[in-house]
Amino acid sequence: MASALSGPSALSSGRGSLHMLYRFAWRWHFYVGLLAAPVLLIVSLTGALYAFEPQLRPILEPYRVAPACDQCERLAYDRLAQIAQEARPDLTLHALSDPGRGRTVVFTLEDEAGGAPDRQLFVDARSGEILADVDKGGALLDQLLGLHRRLLAGPLGHFIVELTTSWVVVTLLLGAMLWWPSRATRAGWWPRPGARGRQRWRDWHSVAGFYLLPLALMLAFTGVFFSPWAQKAMLGGLYAAGQLPRMYVSPPRLDAPIDDSAPLASFDTIITDFSQLARPDEFTLELPHGPDKPIEMNAHLGHQVDKLYLAAYHPETGERLDAQGWDDLAPGAKAVMLFFPLHTGNILGLGTQILAAAASLLMAAITVLGLVMWWLRRPDGRLGLPQRNSADRPPRWVWVVVAGAGLLMPAFGLSIPVIAVLLWSTRRVSPAAS
Questions:
Q1: Which of 11, 87, 285, 323 is the most exposed place for a label (fewest CB within 10 A)?
Q2: Which among 313, 389, 285, 284 is positioned nearest to 19, based on CA atoms?
C-alpha cells in the first residue's frame, strides 16, 4: 500500500475533513507498518513455507510413511496400542491417529505427572515396528508453526503475533484509502516505467499492495482467529447466536464415573462403528480426559471440512453416546470451519496452496519495500516520523469503526486505550518541554 512517502503531497487535492482523513490514514499506515514489520516478515515467510506442509511432512519426517509391503496384513488397533504402550511404560496412552493412505499410525503418550513432554510413536500398522519415538511438536515443521503462531515465545509471543496481525488488517485498509486518490493515474494500476528513486519504490509498494489486498485481508483476518483472545471472542459470539455445535456446547458425559483400573472398550470395535458412520479417510481417537468423560472420535481433515465428523463413546462398553457431522452444523459453525483451509491455502489443493504461499511472499516483499522507502526518506540520525498536525482530527465515524474493530479483534481493542494514553502523555510533555 501507499506509505509515508506518498504523504501529503499525494493527497494535496483533498479538502476539509477528507484531507484530514487522508493525513490520519497516512500517518497511522506509516506507524503501524514500521512497528509491525519485524513480526510481519517472520509470519509471512514462515506462512509461505507452512502452506506446503502436506507435501513437506513426508519428506522431512520419513517415518510417517510405512515401508511398502504388498503381502502384509494390518494388525488390529488394540494390538498396535499394546505395542506402543509396552514400548513406553513410563507414559500413558492418550490418543491414536490413523492418517490412512499408507502412512504410519501415530500414538500420543503423556506423562500424567506433567514432568515430561508428550511423546509420539509412529508404528507400522502391518509389522508393528516402531519407526520413530519423538517429542510431540519437536519436528522442524512444528517448530516452524510455533515460530509462525507465537514466535517460539509462549503466551507473550502469541499475544504479539495476534496484536501484530490485528493491526496488519487495519493498516491494509488504511493503505487502500491511500491508494484510492491515485486510481485515475497510471501509478494506481501499474508502476510507472520511468519512475526513479523513492517514486519507483512507492509505485511498486502501492500497486502490489492494491492487487494483494483481498488475499492479504483474508489471510490476516482468518489468522487472527487462531489466536487465544480473538478465538474466545469469536466463540462467545457464536455461542450467543446459537451457532456452536451441540457436542461442543454440551459434550456427552457418563452417567457415573468409571474406575481407572477398569478395562477400556476395544478400540477396533469403536473404530469399526465410527468408520461405518463417517467413512473417514483419516481419524483420531482420544481417550477420556476425566473419569466422567467419553472416548472421542474425530474425522476432521483440516481442509476437507465436509468430511468433519465427531462421535463420543462409552469408555467401558464402547456404546456410541452421540455423533455429529458437517451436515448437522449451523451456518456460523460451518463458516468458522473454513478458516483453517482458507488460511493455509489447502482449501482446493495445490493450486490454492501456491496462491497462499505467493501472497505471503508478496506480503513480505511489500513490507521490505516500505522499509526501504522509510530508510531512503529519513533524515540522517533521525527516525523521520511524520509530524502530527493539531488540526488533523478524523471524523467521529472513524472512532465508531475503531470500536467495532476492537470488539472483533480484542488485542487491537486493548491496544487502542494504551496508545491513546501514550499520545496524550506525549502532548502533555511537549508543551512543558517547550
A1: 87
A2: 389
